[in-house]
Amino acid sequence: MTSGDTPPREPPLLPRPARSAAAWSAVILLVVAVVAGLVALAFVLRAVTAPLAIAILGSALLHPLYGRLLRWSVPRSWAAGLTCVALVALIAGTVWVLVRTISDNAAKIGAALTDAAGTLRDKYGGGGDPAAEASDGLHELGGRLGESIANGVVDGVGIAVQVVSGGVLVLALTFFLLRDGHELPGVVRVVTPRRHRDTADRILRRSFLAVAGYMRGTTIIALIDATFIAIGLLVLDVPGAPGLAALVFVGAYVPYIGAFLSGLLAVLVAFADGGLGKALGALGVVLAVQLIEGTFLQPGIQSRTVALHPAVVMGAVVAGGAVAGILGALLAVPVVAVLVSALAVVRDAPVARETG
């Protein structure tokens, strides 16, 4: 071998497919680690991140009303303020109806459970019988319901303070997001490197459209769910049907699960008012509405507003609930929609070239 010859290269330890798989695995693990870190940071700072996330959802939902006020030549500050006032009025009205419905029927539910326990005990007797054990459980549940409500009032004071302070923060953030939201694309372009500005701008705009579409579609579904359940409860002559329908409307913002869980209260109210027959009728109404939602509403409406498969939506809700409870279940689908939108923009973005 002469001095000008190149020494032979040693063969790689791993074949090319294995090296490619290892590289992609490293990228995936890095992305998962970053996402997990961000989720952990958001959970630690939830006193700020949770109101901010809710304010983003609220501003996305209320933006059409805000835009209409602007088209009527209302100044931005006034338009944002009036939109927030409308939001407060809607929330206050819904909470008032819910509180009235629950407070008016809590005693009836407890009494009905106690009566059901007595009926089971008289019919099946005691002594280790499963029905008798069930009656004891019902009796205990009915007897403790009023006590739990009374004790909950004391604990509820501290919770109420947190809810009010968080609500004020959400309202303030919603106001500023509505009033100054048009300046966010400019801010993003300033803080983003020049060759990535167009991509960052598209990610921001498409993410907002995804969140707005999700909130619009969820609101439509919530209205339909609440309307159907209200009609069914009125036909069954269940007391407090408007309040129960309002609870279903609020619960429907957690896809698939929320409306069903909130509908269970309607079943309890029906049981307290008319016994097992009326309760079964209310349960049938709730299950029928859930069947309509899962079969037609979620796939039909959300597929047009958010390009997510129903299985992805259900998985996101369950995962969000496991990580952060009700708030996580509420925010899971919008977060996934934003991630999917951002990935779509990055995938379709042209390759940036350095100019020298």
Automatic annotation (TrEMBL):
Protein family according to the UniProt entry: Belongs to the autoinducer-2 exporter (AI-2E) (TC 2.A.86) family.
Q: What is this protein called?
A: AI-2E family transporter
Cellular compartments annotated: Cell membrane
Indicate where this protein is primarily found. membrane
Q: What is the lineage of its organism?
A: Bacteria, Bacillati, Actinomycetota, Actinomycetes, Kitasatosporales
Q: Where are the transmembrane segments?
A: 21-42, 48-66, 78-99, 159-178, 214-236, 248-272, 279-301, 313-346
Give the organism, scientific name.
Streptodolium elevatio
- Which key words are in the record? Cell membrane, Membrane, Transmembrane, Transmembrane helix, Transport
Its topology with respect to the membrane?
Multi-pass membrane protein
